[in-house]
Amino acid sequence: MFLQKITNLTCILFVGGTTVAEDLKNFQQNGGNIIVGTAGRLEDIFSRSNLKLNMKNNLKNFEVLILDEADRLLELGFRENLQTIFDLLPKQRRTGLFSATQTDEIDKLIKVGLRNPCFIQVKQKGNALAQKTPLKLNNYYMV
Questions:
Q1: Within a domain: residue 131?
Q2: Which among 24, 69, 77, 127 counts the fewest CB atoms within 10 Å?
Q3: In terms of DSSP bridges, do strands 64-67 and 34-37 run parallel, antiparallel, or are they unpaired?
Q4: This prediction's pTM
Q5: How many whole angstroms separate alpha carbon 60 and alpha carbon 93?
Q6: What is the CATH number of the domain that holds 74?
């Protein structure tokens, strides 16, 4: 696991298979500098009426939102879930949208929840079908 060597950060997973009460208890006990979850589950947790105000206060220092498979989120009907999540998170945050494809749905998602967007595209020269990952792509991280 990525965080095994980084002891001052914690990660929590919000997906189906557990109750919201179990997720919240785990979050209160262990914290979560990094929250990973599905759009529906996050919206469910963030928007519960008895938790909304408390969650809004807990999320005031939230800095980064990452959405993977962003092109599929709106296609699969998560627009309202995402709007609720965006409304509960601070306006001053970084949001990363990751997608293997650039679709009209991505443009719609950008209009829903982003300010001052910046596009970064990774392209491979030559036959795009022959190699999906650029040959010179290097991944780095810093602690």
A1: no
A2: 127
A3: unpaired
A4: 0.63
A5: 10
A6: 3.40.50.300
